Amino acid sequence: MLFIAGALGTAIAPSIPFMVAARFLLGIAVGGGSATVPVFIAEIAGPSRRARLVSRNELMIVSGQLLAYVLSAVMAALLHTPGIWRYMLAIAMVPGVLLLIGTFFVPPSPRWLASKGRFDEAQDVLEQLRSNKDDAQREVDEMKAQDEQARNRPKAKELLRQRWVIKLLLIGIGLGFTAQLTGVNAFMYYTPIILKNTGMGTNAALTATIGNGVVSVIATLLGIWAIGRYGRRHLLMTGLVMVILMQAALGCVLQFMPQNLTQSYTALACILVFLLFMQMCISPVYWLLMSELFPMQVRGLLTGTAVSMQWLFNASVAFTFPIAVDTIGNPTFFIFAAINVGSLIFVFLCLPETKGKSLEQIEKHLKKEL
Question: Which stretches are transmembrane (predicted)?
Answer without folding.
Answer: 25-46, 58-78, 84-106, 164-190, 210-228, 235-258, 264-289, 301-325, 331-351
